[in-house]
Design brief:
Number of strands: 4
Largest sheet: 4 strands, antiparallel
Strand content: 15-25%
Structural class: alpha+beta
Shape: elongated
Helix content: 25-40%
Number of helices: 3
Radius of gyration: 20 Å
Strand order of the largest sheet: 1-2-3-4
Length: about 130
């Protein structure tokens, strides 16, 4: 891939920007479709978060998204015809707001000190750091 000056550019990204011309797209069924550049394949790769084993390679981001949507639709049709459960869309799942994170003891210590210095809970500090 080259930039506007014809210089070779190595892209290594997976964009998830929610805006009118999205890079991560929630389809009609609420599934999350996204694309990234595959350096190995030198093409864009379309992915679906709910179906991590599926992908679609194409020369453009738009074609990679179109391809992965088609593959996912066909997969869902096949699963339904076989009586299999289709994974729920991540965007529609209910989350408790709780999960366990293991960190090295020195990170735990630094966060605990920072929380104490700030007069807030360790949970509040960790939540703020994760939200950044």
């Amino acid at each position: 891939m080259t930039n506007q000056y014809g210089q070779a550019v190595t892209l290594n990204f997976c964009l998830r920007i929610l805006c009118p011309d999205t890079f991560e797209i929630q389809g009609k069924c609420g599934l999350n479709h996204l694309f990234s550049w595959s350096e190995e394949d030198e093409e864009f790769i379309g992915l679906c978060a709910e179906f991590p084993s599926l992908s679609w390679l194409a020369e453009s981001p738009e074609a990679s998204l179109k391809g992965i949507r088609k593959v996912v639709r066909n997969c869902i049709k096949d699963m339904e015809s076989c009586g299999e459960d289709v994974p729920p869309a991540l965007a529609t799942k209910n989350y408790s707001g709780k999960f366990m994170v293991r960190v090295p003891p020195d990170v735990h210590r630094k966060l605990a000190v920072k929380a104490a210095e700030s007069g807030v809970s360790l949970n509040r500090i960790a939540s703020a750091k994760l939200a950044q």
